Amino acid sequence: MTQTAAKISEPQPLRALERANEIRLARAQIKRRIALGEVSAAEVILECPAAAKSWSVGELLMSQRRWGTKRCRKFLSRSSIVETKQVGTLTDRQRQLLAGSLQSSEVGEIELVA
């Protein structure tokens, strides 16, 4: 209870910076987990953790291995979703569509590699 009281007495800009830092660190951790293959971008889109709510879909997709701007734009244009759209503002239908497309593209990549 004393921690809450201490946080409230801090100036608002400091609390905002602290919160922004927490979100940046959480996103960096999600990016690392995606790059290592521990979690897929489709899972992040479906589960939408708090740190990913204000994250743009384009940035999330580009955190995957071998995904650049061009591939991201091409992929999202098929779903009629702009790359700057935030993950938290996606509708359930859009989430399902993106996750399904990502999972099917992952299966296609695995077949090409094998």
Can you give a write-up of this model?
Helix content is 68%, strand content 0%. The longest helix is centred in the N-terminal third of the chain and has 25 residues, at 12-36. The chain is built from six helices and no strands. It has a single domain (11-113), classed as Helicase, Ruva Protein, domain 3.
How many distinct beta strands? 0
What is the share of helical residues? Answer: 55-70%
The structural domain count equals: 1
Strand content: under 5%
Briefly, what CATH class? Mainly Alpha
Low-pLDDT residue intervals, each spanning 5 or more residues = 110-114
State the shape: elongated
CATH level-3 fold name:
Helicase, Ruva Protein, domain 3
The end-to-end span amounts to: 55 Å
User: What is the radius of gyration computed over CA atoms, rounded to a whole number of angstroms?
Assistant: 17 Å
Q: What is the makeup of the main sheet?
A: none
Number of helices: 6
Alpha-beta classification: mainly alpha
Helix/strand order: HHHHHH
CATH architecture: Orthogonal Bundle
Determine the mean pLDDT: 87
